[in-house]
Design brief:
Blueprint: H1 6-11, H2 26-32, H3 39-52, H4 54-60
Length: 62
């Protein structure tokens, strides 16, 4: 049984865990996007990570 009242639960925002909370290598991002880890795909993923940071991961692994 929860000791949190309905009022407290409604006032407390949920805590969401996302895939961007951990470090990602360009190889990991390329594979998560369904691409083979070729030099070209790794370079594309590296550029996305440098440009967009966590947003690049969030688009792929929400």
């Amino acid at each position: 049984m929860s000791s949190t009242s309905p009022e407290q639960a409604a006032a407390t925002p949920p805590v969401w865990r996302t895939g961007a909370e951990q470090p990602w290598d360009p190889e990991d991002l390329a594979m998560a996007q369904g691409r083979d880890p070729t030099p070209e795909n790794i370079a594309r993923a590296r550029a996305e990570l440098e440009r967009d940071g966590a947003a690049a991961i969030e688009r792929t692994v929400p």
